[in-house]
Automatic annotation (TrEMBL):
Organism lineage string: Eukaryota, Metazoa, Ecdysozoa, Arthropoda, Hexapoda
Name of this protein: DNA ligase 4
Keyword flag Nucleus: yes
Gene label: LOC113402034
Compartments where located: Nucleus
Keyword match Magnesium: yes
Residue ranges occupied by any ATP-dependent DNA ligase family profile domain in the UniProt entry: 358-498
Similarity remark: Belongs to the ATP-dependent DNA ligase family.
InterPro entries in UniProt: Adenylation_DNA_ligase_IV, BRCT_dom, BRCT_dom_sf, DNA_ligase_ATP-dep, DNA_ligase_ATP-dep_C, DNA_ligase_ATP-dep_cent, DNA_ligase_ATP-dep_CS, DNA_ligase_ATP-dep_N
Gene3D superfamilies: BRCT domain, DNA ligase, ATP-dependent, N-terminal domain, DNA ligase/mRNA capping enzyme, Nucleic acid-binding proteins
EC code: 6.5.1.1
Species whose genome carries this gene: Vanessa tameamea (Kamehameha butterfly)
PROSITE patterns documented for this protein: BRCT, DNA_LIGASE_A2, DNA_LIGASE_A3
Length: 894
């Protein structure tokens, strides 16, 4: 297809040289996102203009260009299977360089780590080494030519024709300029080094392109759908879901949830629990007996698993399992390894890769299906307007689609959640079984491609403090960072101590990269810097046992420090000194208080792995219900409505010696949301009981009211949503004993539900002044305070006013709708406030979390893990300030 497609845009329309010039500009402006966007948008507009003005150009497609701009999204061509090492040797061969020459050595032994400047990738090194050998000084090849050359490279790999490769490369060297060749190499390596995300490039191309790409993972389809003629005639829209058989849909993702925050899920919603399978996400497409398999990032694995019932390692076993009235479908699930002899699942850390296992492996693929995307010609995803069905209805279809064949294809089992105890029990069962965790899903959620916050939650033990066993290791090595901004080390090799009669030996157990905050990493690197020894110059001494994975630098423990490390599992490995290594490790803290001789001993480490199972889970401790009550404000995400009660034995209890002295709260249920600085929760509960009331752990429909002391994020959230009656803890503390039930007045309340508000409005005015009761000085003061407050309009009212006065954009308060946390710049904070933003440190209520543009990707990832809020670069704010309007933040999402 690709050659034909390449021809659709006229060869003369765009030369590769012009594209390279744009790429150069984008590369130069890589720290200036808005400028990059402008450059790219201008380029697209120019091409669009040329297309419409050219004969038949209205039907021309951007695909040949877009696939060069987004080489990492290339799915129409086979993989090139050319990495730096192979490319280096190929160039040396094609250019007939003396392999021992300095230039040839630079190409053959290229390593991004050891190259002289931070910016240099292989293409850049090749450019400098080879630029004088290029004869072509100006551009002569078109985009079509380049695509054809790439087709040939992909073909050469499939057909294993080295000659074809040599031909393409010698042609490229003769016909391309040195600069074009540099970009040609970057396209082959699928990394243009522009620091522009897929979404940003697609978003600049067309506002609907990103969404379309999520549903089909095909640039070709995106370009077809957004052809110039459609754009001009206004017929294009993203409303039509482009789910097509045999085109991969980007899978829906799960949001991380710490089980101790489970109460924060609204109880008005029904959830079910499923096992969290520890395999590889796969989609299966089928039409009339023809199958395709796609991995999570849209790569085809059909050859492996089989395109028909006659081929592959999975499809032949599916022959009789599908219902007879199904013609086509797309299903979503996890490809697991099934141990043929032991008849059980393996997990990802084990010594097989489900994508590449062969017949000889002890494992075979078993597809565990948890969703359906497409059924008998109809897409079932996205919102109802687009034909989407809620999960429970999709699952009704899925249940009838096939019958389980154990070890081949299985439905993911699910159970409806009745209360938080169910979730806890399921997680603890997963911990006991050494499983990865559980997944909790809103049964009414719609399938949203590539979306993470749409009703699916993954709950793993490691998200909860205290369930994991932390291990103390000493740093004995490091690998060098390509980018030295955060210090010299990219990752650290950590070891346990093996105490021997002749002296200690340090046995490396693995490598850890994540977990350290930027400043801390810098501090660690600075402290170790004087003691690092490069392994290339001086091999590590025998007391440091590394095995195959020798670090770039080693350090003696006496000069080193201790890391407290948390990992999800230990997996068998022959790469490091110990027979098991750490899976997904991260540094929890630097133990400056610990001597290196106090780290874990090899003996202790071996005890952990004494079962000899290939994977040892490090989540040892179960979660108990008391932990469920410890809210974690940082991950507070969703609206809280009627919440489930925790089981009786874990409720906050008084000692039982409370004397009931009043009937003010007789038989009423109250829920204490937060305590007061000087009055613990248990004391507030005692007060409730002394008035004859009952304390409940979570508010439900029969809860009379809630009590708030300290303004915790949870308390704020509950007050904000105005769905509960909430009184202040000071009201409870000053409640006088009484023989009759007390009543609530607006002045004591932080929040009211609608019915209460309506009822009280009969007796009180909007400032809390009673129509019938006399008031004292104290009450009068409070009413006056309310009057003052109510003079100021709410944000909502201000927004309305903005709209009336300024239409779409109020140039003086364009940030009014935003609640922003600004990590660094005080100036930005000031300006943001000046332009109407609420600047806040309350992570639960943020619309944007603004961080400096040069924040490391690791830190960005950490923020993403911890916060459910848009994380944007500070360039977004600058763009807003500059343009005096609320600039679309999409381009600035980190
Ligand atoms: N029952 C299930 N429902 C949905 N996803 C599941 C289920 N079981 C396993 N998964 C897998 O869990 C993955 C998410 O969990 P995990 O955090 O381990 O993966 P990740 O790749 O590290 O992160 P993420 O996929 O969330 O970016 C999903 O992509 C999916 O492949």
């Amino acid at each position: 297809m690709s050659a034909a497609v390449s021809g659709l845009v006229s060869a003369n329309l765009e030369s590769f040289g012009e594209l390279c010039a744009v790429l150069e500009q984008l590369h130069k402006k890589k720290r200036h996102r808005p400028e990059q966007n402008k450059i790219l948008a201008n380029f697209f507009n120019n091409v669009r203009l040329k297309m419409t003005n050219s004969e038949g150009g209205k039907d021309a497609t951007f695909f040949p260009i877009l696939r060069l701009l987004l080489p990492q999204c290339e799915r129409e061509r086979n993989p090139y299977n050319l990495k730096e090492k192979k490319l280096g040797s190929l160039l040396v061969k094609v250019l007939s360089l003396n392999p021992k020459s300095i230039d040839a050595q630079k190409l053959i032994n290229f390593s991004s780590v050891h190259s002289s400047t931070q910016e240099s990738d292989f293409a850049w090194v090749a450019y400098f080494v080879l630029k004088n050998r290029f004869v072509q000084k100006s551009s002569i090849l078109s985009i079509t030519d380049i695509n054809e050359m790439l087709d040939n490279i992909a073909k050469a790999d499939v057909e294993n024709k080295g000659i074809l490769l040599d031909e393409v490369f010698s042609y490229a060297i003769r016909k391309l300029t040195a600069q074009e060749f540099k970009w040609f190499l970057r396209i082959i390596l699928k990394n243009l080094k522009l620091e522009m995300s897929e979404n940003r490039i697609l978003g600049t191309f067309h506002p609907h392109a990103t969404e379309l790409y999520q549903t089909c993972s095909s640039l070709y389809e995106v370009c077809e759908k957004l052809k110039t003629s459609n754009i001009l005639s206004g017929t294009e829209s993203s409303d039509e879901a482009v789910v097509k058989l045999f085109l991969a849909v980007k899978p829906m993702l799960s949001e991380r949830l710490d089980v101790t925050n489970i109460h924060q899920l609204p109880t008005s919603i029904t959830y079910h629990i499923e096992d969290k399978f520890d395999g590889e996400r796969f989609q299966m497409h089928m039409e009339n007996g023809k199958f395709e398999y796609f991995s999570r990032n849209g790569r085809k694995y059909t050859k492996k698993y089989g395109s028909t019932y006659d081929s592959g390692s999975l499809t032949p076993d599916l022959k009789d399992c599908f219902s007879t009235d199904v013609h086509n479908f797309i299903i979503d699930g996890e490809m697991m390894g099934w141990h043929k002899r032991d008849q059980c699942f393996g997990c990802k850390g084990m010594s097989y890769d489900i994508k590449t296992i062969t017949e000889n492996s002890s494992y075979r693929p078993c597809y565990c299906v948890f969703d359906i995307i497409y059924y008998n010609g109809k897409s079932l995803i996205c919102d109802p307007e687009k034909g989407g069905l809620p999960l429970k209805e999709r699952l009704n279809i899925l249940d009838t689609l096939f019958t389980d064949v154990p070890g081949v294809i299985q439905h993911s089992k699910r159970s409806i959640v009745k209360d938080s105890t169910d979730v806890l029990n399921a997680l603890n069962a997963a911990i006991d079984n050494q499983d990865e965790g559980i997944v909790v899903k809103d049964v009414n959620s719609y399938y949203k491609p590539n979306k993470r916050n749409e009703g699916w939650y993954k709950i793993k033990p490691e998200y909860t403090d205290d369930t994991m066993v932390d291990l103390d290791f000493v740093v004995i090595g490091a690998d060098e960072a390509e980018n030295k901004r955060q210090g010299r080390a990219k990752s650290f090799h950590v070891a346990c101590i093996d105490v021997k009669p002749g002296g200690a030996r340090w046995v490396c157990v693995g490598r850890v990269a994540g977990g350290l905050a930027r400043a801390e990493r810098e501090r660690v690197c600075a402290a170790l810097q004087p003691h690092w020894r490069a392994s290339r110059r001086a091999p590590p001494p025998p007391c440091l046992h590394f095995n195959k994975e020798t670090p770039d630098f080693w350090v003696l423990p006496e000069h080193s420090i201790v890391f407290q490390v948390r990992a999800t599992e230990l997996i068998r490995s022959s790469s490091f000194g110990a027979p098991y290594t750490l899976r997904f490790p991260r540094v929890m803290c630097v133990r400056t208080d610990k001597l290196v001789s106090d780290v874990m001993t090899l003996q202790e480490f071996n005890q952990l792995v004494s079962t000899r199972s290939p994977v040892i889970k490090l989540s040892r401790k179960r979660v108990n219900e008391t932990q469920l009550n410890q809210m974690q404000p940082m991950t507070l995400r969703r609206r809280v409505a009627n919440l489930p009660q925790v089981s009786e034995r874990f409720r906050t209890k008084t000692t039982g010696d409370v004397q009931v002295v009043s009937k003010a709260l007789l038989d009423r249920k109250l829920c204490v949301i937060s305590d007061e600085e000087d009055c613990k929760k248990v004391d507030l509960v005692k007060l409730i009981e002394s008035h004859g009331g009952k304390h409940v752990e979570n508010p439900g429909p029969d809860t009379w009211c809630c009590v708030v002391g300290r303004m915790t994020p949870l308390a704020k959230k509950r007050i904000e949503i105005q769905e509960l009656d909430i009184v202040t803890a000071s009201w409870l503390r000053s409640l006088p004993p009484s023989d009759t039930l007390c009543s609530l007045t607006p002045l004591n309340m932080l929040s009211m539900k609608r019915e209460t508000r309506w009822q009280l409005s009969l007796d009180y005015d909007s400032f809390g002044d009673s129509f019938k009761d006399e008031i004292d000085e104290n009450v009068l003061n409070k009413c006056l305070q309310n009057m003052q407050q109510s003079i100021y309009p709410t944000t909502k009212e201000k927004l309305k006013l903005d709209e009336q006065l300024f239409g779409d954009n109020n140039p003086f308060s364009f940030l009014r709708s935003c609640t922003i946390h600004i990590a660094k710049s005080p100036l930005h904070r000031l300006l943001a406030k000046m332009y109407g933003a609420s600047v806040s440190d309350d992570f639960a209520s943020l619309t944007h979390f603004v961080i400096p543009r040069d924040t490391s990707s690791e830190d960005v990832q950490n923020f993403k893990n911890d916060l459910n809020v848009k994380i944007v670069s500070d360039e977004w704010l600058e763009a807003c300030f500059q343009e005096k309007r609320l600039v679309n933040d999409l381009d600035y999402i980190m």
